[in-house]
Amino acid sequence: MIDKVILSDEASQIFCEALDSLIERIKPLLNGVEEVLPSARRSIDFETSLNEPDPVKAKGSGKRLKGRKELAREKYKGRRCNGCGKYGQTHDKRNCPMLQKSSSIVDKDAFNGMDNSSSSQDD
């Protein structure tokens, strides 16, 4: 019915007047109930709202989706040396250059301590 009314201006005018009179007759019946909001009465002047379409991508192939394993492999920092605490090194605690330096200092001190103790025994 509304489709037929939209076709002519006179028909839409008569239809709007009829709807207004119906609303006026119904208002007294809805005394305690919420009033009919003006937004509930929609005008017959249908305004079509057109949404813009999504932009089309340019030529070429799309981006490749990476799998979970591949993403995890990229995120992985590598093994951590427990001696120096660095990630992705080619050494571990057993052959850490930082520990090698500190252990060589300790070994020299221990070796020097042995020399001093052995020389004191010779006297």
Summarize this, please?
The protein is mainly alpha-helical and 123 residues long.
Describe this structure in words.
The structure is a single chain. This protein has 123 residues and is an all-alpha fold. The chain folds into two domains: 1-47, no CATH class; 83-122. Helices cover 46% and strands 0% of the residues. The longest helix is centred in the C-terminal third of the chain and has 26 residues, at 97-122. It starts with a helix and ends with a helix. It comes from Prunus armeniaca (Apricot).
Keyphrases for this structure?
single chain; 123 residues; mainly alpha; 2 domains; 4 helices; rod-shaped; Protein FAR1-RELATED SEQUENCE
Topology:
Blueprint: H1 2-6, H2 9-26, H3 68-75, H4 97-122
Biased composition (Polar residues): 114-123
Region (Disordered): 48-69, 87-123
Protein name: Protein FAR1-RELATED SEQUENCE
